[in-house]
Specification:
- Helix content is 1%, strand content 47%.
- It contains one helix and 27 strands.
- The chain has a nine-stranded antiparallel beta sheet with strand order 10-11-12-13-27-23-22-17-20, with no helix packed on it. It has a six-stranded antiparallel beta sheet with strand order 16-25-24-21-18-19, with no helix packed on it.
């Protein structure tokens, strides 16, 4: 069984697992801010993982970088894609842990399809303002490497059904995708579309599994809010290294539990970025890249 690490600060408590450096639990005053998963078991639906060295999916598991074509293992066979990177199945190594923080590390590559060496360090810090996460990638090889990252939490606004949750997301465009493989087709404006959540409104029956961009940042941060009509809520902020945002309403066919949380994934690049060339990070030898985000409780306005 993989080890896990409990963090506490004020009314917050978080549990982070060695497996995938995943956020297993985040609570405020005893209520869930993310959909948890059981201790010691598998991680369902990639909940809380760090997806690196690419977020989302790569078509056919194949891409070309610096003139060489690479073939990754297809981890999503129903869509014939390589999904959520290589760090997910790994047990990370704890470097530091105290009452309010933990730092975990792992190395991805070289492996079939990713002949590069990227050292990852994820740091979680819990304080009275929420859970702050940063992921730093260091290229430990002598050749450049393609890279991208995102977290994969499923946010929980409260006890009401997801359809009633009120979403505000600061994005003006979204990627239309193929219905069968969820691969990018075209960038479209949210104006006049059911995906326009720039002003807070209920999610309703809208099904979302799309990447958004043209995000509004204020003082270097973008902010998303998700509120339950009963008065509770959860917020997420992220820095300008994450120009993309995947949102997924977690729709599942019966009899599986469906729409139990809202996946909110600030991404450094969109789906299939290693092929499209849209915003992948070129990590030069010895270079580092850090992206960060925060999840926090929203209180009922006075």
């Amino acid at each position: 069984m993989s080890a896990e690490f409990t963090l506490k600060a004020g009314a917050y408590e978080a549990v982070v697992t060695e497996r995938a450096a995943a956020l297993r639990v985040l609570q405020f005053e005893g209520r869930d801010l993310v959909v948890p998963f059981p201790e010691g078991g598998p991680i369902p639906d990639y909940r809380g993982i760090i997806a690196a060295p690419w977020p989302n999916r790569i078509a056919d598991g194949r891409y070309t970088f610096d003139g060489a074509t690479h073939q990754l293992a297809v981890s999503e066979p129903e869509r014939d894609t390589a999904l959520h990177g290589l760090a997910y199945p790994l047990d990370w190594t704890v470097k530091e842990h105290d009452a309010g923080s933990v730092t975990l590390t792992c190395t991805v590559g070289p492996t079939s399809g990713y002949p590069f060496v990227v050292e990852l360090s994820t740091r979680y810090v819990l304080d009275e303002t929420g859970l702050h996460t940063s992921v730093t990638a260091h290229n430990a090889a002598d050749v450049a490497a393609p890279y991208g990252v995102c977290p994969h939490p499923y946010l929980v606004a409260g006890s009401s059904p997801l359809n009633e949750w009120i979403l505000e997301a600061p994005a003006s465009s979204f990627l239309e995708v193929t219905p069968d493989r969820l691969l990018p087709v075209s960038l479209e404006p949210v104006e006049g579309h059911e995906f326009d959540f720039r002003a807070a409104r209920p999610i309703g029956a809208t099904e979302i599994d799309h990447a958004f961009t043209d995000i509004t940042f204020d003082a270097g941060l973008a902010r998303l809010s998700l509120r339950d009509p009963a008065g509770t809520g959860v917020g997420m902020s992220w820095d300008e290294r994450c120009l993309w945002l995947q949102i997924h309403t977690a729709d599942k066919p019966a009899p599986l539990p469906s729409r139990i949380g809202l996946a909110v994934e600030p991404m450094t690049c969109p789906p299939d970025a290693f092929n499209s060339g849209t915003d992948p990070i070129r990590l030069e030898p010895g270079a580092e890249h850090t992206a960060s985000w925060t999840i926090y409780a929203l209180q009922q306005p006075n």
